[in-house]
Amino acid sequence: MPSQTTPVIETEFSTDLNATQPSRATLLRVYELMRTGDELARLYEENKAVTAKYVHATARGHEAIQLAAACFLGPHDYVTPYYRDDAMLLGLGLEPYELMLQLMAKRDDPFSGGRTYYSHPSLRRAGFPTIPHNSSATGMQAIPATGMAHGIKYLESQGLHPVTADPRDFHESGAPVPGLYSLLPAEARPGGPVVVCSIGDGAMTEGEVAEALQMAVLHQLPIIYLVQDNDWGISATGREMRAMDAYEFAAGFKGLQRLRVNGADFPDSYAGLATAFDYVRRTRGPILVHAKCPLLGHHTSGVRREWYRGDNLAKHTTNDPLPRLHEQLLALGVEEQELEALGEQARTRVLTDYQRALAAPNPDPATFADHEFAASAVTEEAGERSPAGADKALMVDAALHAVDDILSEFPEALFYGQDVGGELGGVFREAALLAKKYGDARVFNTPIQEAYIMGSTAGMSAVGAKAMVEIQFADYIWPGLNQLVEELSKSCYLSNGKFPVQALVRVPIGAYGGGGPYHSGSIESTLLTIRGIKVVYPSNAADMKGLLRAAFLDPNPVVLLEHKGLYWSKVPGTEDAKTVEPAAGYVIPLGQAAIAQPADAEQLRLGNTCVVVTYGMGVHWAKTASRQFAGQVEILDLRTLNPLDFDAVQAAVRRHGKALVLTEEPLMNSFAESLAGRIQRTCFQQLDAPVFTLGAANLPAIALNVELEKQMLPSAEKVAAALAELLEY
């Protein structure tokens, strides 16, 4: 059937025109699915006392473009739907019953086990495209989706395959493909995997979307940005929210192809997406498809259309894709009775599935904490920590060698961030010469885009690439925090364990020598309020090498904090940060503290001892200070802040009866104060003194002047004063 308009695109295509025309079987199946979506929306409205217990949105008005996209998404592809994409999910082969299980937060919801909203899918299932977890998809999904395309491009460059890619043609091989892709002509199938990022036009104004588009064109990534534009946010109209639509906005990204389609017309949407998929599969470059759609339902069940739409709703109804397709099929000679039979079939299926879903069991409350993390790959120390004849290494070199070992051993590993590639190899030389050794596809510079650096790792992980990334200074991490919280930290839990994010994020941290307010901050307390991530903080070269490898091998997001003042052991008192370098492959389990300095057994027997619980630079302040109290001070190096080895903390505190918790952070409301409170609660009966705490002054930034910096921060002298008071208590 001919399309209503010709897709407009700014490049030449060799798409077979026959492949841009949907077959009769496709049109009829799409019609049935449109009727199914219509019945779902109607049922949800008629039973809103039940169905609106939790917030949902439906695809009404958007069905044509969504089902067209589903026609071209094969089992080797990847897609990030957004919260209005239930028609797309039906087109991929999901059953109404499965969508209703999520609607009602039931135990057998295939996406999240009742943990997240309707049409927030995450799916690994044979025959289906991979659907990684993403957040509520109001722009944040663009970066992880682009990260998937970036990971695919990288793996292809190394002769590797994404984790779900299958070189077979699924249709020809007979493997089951339950969705509309099974009806796609063979000539439209060849080509590499494609990522589809589905997004609303309102979300295109998010700054993170611009970061994603920039990287897509900079690296020419195989991704389709499918923009569904209904001219509404919640109650804000397009003219209130933007100066241009997504198609016009995309013109500013050189190398991003653009295509407009009528998103309310299925044949036109099909033709446009046939062109777009063909382009991306062949050229491996990005394209943006802008589809204008009516909004026929509520924004969500919690924001009802009658509250603010007025005459606008009637205007949108005239562009309803369902009656339009109905008339097109009649014009093709399909009998009215056949269409009504399909509609009745859809209605019966939806009503039957609704009753099944109502009766389905709820989640077992005992499982509420399952899947915070995927199981750790490293559970015990392994390898040589102190090889015979090995030289001592600086902490920065131990980190460099650990990354080098990983890149050499794991071809799916790559490393990127600001200034880590090319000649410099990082502002601290922590990646020196790695780009020359492994090539620019594996070790490369990014733009100043902390959100992309952070969030792209979720997409990399979903396709089987293993990203190590760097935020240049801890003070620069804040633009990336949205991605860390919304996309990385929640993925394992909300996908019911299907999509843990394997990501190693290196962050130089801490103050010394006049770094000033934007290069000296400590951020661990903020990070530790984020559930679902691990936070590691080594204090010496050997631990750095072992913990970095464990962090890379861990299947969860790990933030590795690396104190700049320990990198070269130039700061007086930090000589012990330089250690014999462990052999390649040395690894330390995350969540295992170490005694950096034991107390003397006789002083312990006499009751003259205390423990300093600390990490990072605090270990070295405590060592220097303890020289004034020979044999009286044990130093417990936490090494990992989450998971915290609280058993080791309790054992040390109970052993000595006196404890000082030491941090470089401002003390008020910090991790250190929280830890002190936990110690007081669980070790109260063994304490001979209150738990002491020491940290930086409670000020918003580190001053530039070195004397002001010294006044603000802890030091060996300040620790010694606290130890004297504690031991005398």
TrEMBL record:
Q: What class of enzyme is it?
A: oxidoreductase
Per its database record, what is this protein's job? E1 component of the 2-oxoglutarate dehydrogenase (OGDH) complex which catalyzes the decarboxylation of 2-oxoglutarate, the first step in the conversion of 2-oxoglutarate to succinyl-CoA and CO(2).
- Pfam families the UniProt entry points to: E1_dh, Transket_pyr, Transketolase_C
Q: What are the BP-aspect GO terms?
A: branched-chain amino acid catabolic process; response to nutrient
Q: Which UniProt keywords are given for this protein, alphabetically ordered?
A: Oxidoreductase, Thiamine pyrophosphate
Gene3D superfamilies of this UniProt entry? 3.40.50.920, 3.40.50.970
**Source species:** Hymenobacter aquaticus
Per the database record, which ranges form the Transketolase-like pyrimidine-binding domain? 393-569
> What GO terms are given for molecular function?
branched-chain 2-oxo acid dehydrogenase activity
What PANTHER family would the database entry show?
2-OXOISOVALERATE DEHYDROGENASE SUBUNIT BETA, MITOCHONDRIAL (PTHR42980:SF1), 2-OXOISOVALERATE DEHYDROGENASE SUBUNIT BETA-RELATED (PTHR42980)
Q: Which domain of life is it from?
A: Bacteria
Cofactor(s) needed, names only, are: thiamine diphosphate
> Is this entry keyworded Iron-sulfur?
no
What is the recorded name of this protein?
3-methyl-2-oxobutanoate dehydrogenase (2-methylpropanoyl-transferring)
Is the keyword Oxidoreductase in the record? yes
Reported EC number(s) for this entry are: 1.2.4.4
